[in-house]
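pls design
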């Protein structure tokens, strides 16, 4: 248990030297989980009474729709970061956002394979032939909801840290309205159950806030000043023997 605790305490998103190692590792975990993680059989999901017979509609929150929206959301706050903060701050939070995306995807893939809950529409595509449709993506929890709320939550925290309160609150309404629309569309399209969306939104937001807090420890101006101050003090401390009457003492000197 102590070793697990040590790993989490040493894990520091936003620290450049560590990000060079942890980001590729996280990406590898996502790849292997997506390609090789088996699905629990029988499923762990307890509600066996669910009737998965709804017709699946065309996904309205497709990548071609979501990507331009995400770009429109990130451009204003990105421009604010570039103009107001040093490049180290901007790149640290860019890597923090990458950590958020990878960890959210890893959790989503793992939960879907572990829980094994079917989508509301999983058995409709071959219903006419009497066969059971294949569902290799599963339903719990919603990846759309998790990622949209994770992305919006990270941008929201940045906005509150960089802009005035009225602007931040107005931006937060827009961010979470977009995330809520994307999440709700998954239920309307019969791609997810309501509980899939609610849990995905909660997990995505929680992961995002956790990563943001970790990045802020090394990316905030206060953290940078503290680190520089500590390094300065450490480099300026000196001890030397001095004569004290008939004896010898130790003198301490610090250039502050």
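designed seq:
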């Amino acid at each position: 248990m102590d070793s697990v605790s040590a790993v989490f305490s040493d894990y520091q998103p936003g620290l450049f030297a560590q990000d060079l190692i942890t980001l590729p590792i996280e990406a590898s975990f996502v790849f292997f989980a997506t390609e090789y993680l088996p699905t629990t059989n029988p499923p762990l999901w307890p509600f066996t009474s669910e009737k998965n017979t709804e017709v699946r509609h065309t996904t309205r929150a497709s990548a071609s729709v979501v990507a331009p929206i995400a770009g429109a959301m990130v451009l204003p706050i990105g421009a604010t970061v570039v103009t107001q903060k040093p490049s180290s701050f901007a790149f640290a939070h860019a890597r923090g956002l990458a950590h958020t995306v990878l960890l959210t995807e890893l959790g989503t893939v793992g939960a879907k394979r572990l829980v094994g809950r079917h989508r509301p529409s999983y058995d409709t595509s071959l219903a006419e032939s009497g066969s059971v449709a294949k569902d290799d993506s599963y339903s719990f929890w919603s990846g759309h909801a998790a990622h949209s709320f994770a992305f919006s939550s990270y941008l929201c925290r940045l906005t509150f840290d960089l802009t005035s309160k009225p602007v931040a609150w107005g931006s937060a309404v827009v961010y979470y309205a977009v995330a809520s629309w994307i999440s709700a569309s998954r239920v309307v399209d019969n791609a997810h159950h309501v509980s899939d969306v609610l849990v995905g939104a909660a997990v995505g937001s929680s992961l995002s806030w956790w990563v943001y807090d970790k990045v802020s420890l090394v990316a905030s101006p206060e953290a940078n000043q503290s680190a520089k101050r500590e390094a300065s003090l450490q480099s300026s401390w000196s001890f030397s023997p001095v004569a004290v009457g008939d004896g010898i003492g130790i003198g301490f000197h610090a250039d502050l």
